[in-house]
Amino acid sequence: MVMQFRTIPLAQRQDIFFKLVTLQDAKSKGIRESKKIIIDQFQIDDATLEKITEEGMDRNWPPLSENEEDSQVADSDVDSDSVKSIVSSEEALETIESSEEAIETIESSEEALETIEPADEATDEVTHTPEA
Predict the structure, then answer these.
(1) Dihedral of the CA atoms 24, 12, 69, 58 (nearest 10)?
(2) C-alpha span between 62 and 78 (Å, rounded)
(3) Which of 35, 68, 106, 118 has its CA 20 to 30 A from that of 76?
(4) What are phi and psi of 3, to 5 degrees?
(5) pTM to 2 decimals?
């Protein structure tokens, strides 16, 4: 299932942008390949990635907003295996967080169901006999 732009929380959009820029700056992958990696990893479509990219550039999200020394990833010794390891670790964390959110949603739903009266009790009918 492909996630749509409007359903992706701000923090996740920022994370997507950060990882895309980091991959591109590391020069281990070309722009097209970096986009494909991010699209596959986050299960989004190309249009959604473009909107996130525009938003990140317009709002100067990290790593763009970091000071010059920190954002010189392209000139550092970062190799593709390091980037893949970081991306894989963060992906695993996101999966755990998503699972925890799903569990909380289920627990909230169960609590809500417990507060609803059973249908039999809520719809007891009162019958009247006509007076003669």
Answers:
(1) 80
(2) 18
(3) 35
(4) -80, 140
(5) 0.49
For residue 10, pLDDT beyond 60: yes
HSE of 17, CA atoms in CB hemisphere, 13 A: 24
CA distance 37 to 122: 54
pLDDT digits (tens, 9 = 90+) for 74-98: 433 444 555 555 556 566 556 666 6
User: Are 74 and 26 a contacting pair, CB within 8 Å?
Assistant: yes
Count of helix runs (H) and strand runs (E) in the chain: 5, 0
Strand partners, 44: 3
Question: For tokens 């999200």, what's the residue?
Answer: 61
> In the structure encoding, which two tokens stand for residue 102, read together?
């799903």
**CB neighbour list of residue 83: distance below 8 Å, 6 or more residues apart:** 22, 23, 26, 28
Segment 15-28, tens digit of pLDDT: 999 999 999 888 77
Residue 28, burial from CB neighbour count under 10 angstroms (0-12, 13-18, 19+): middle
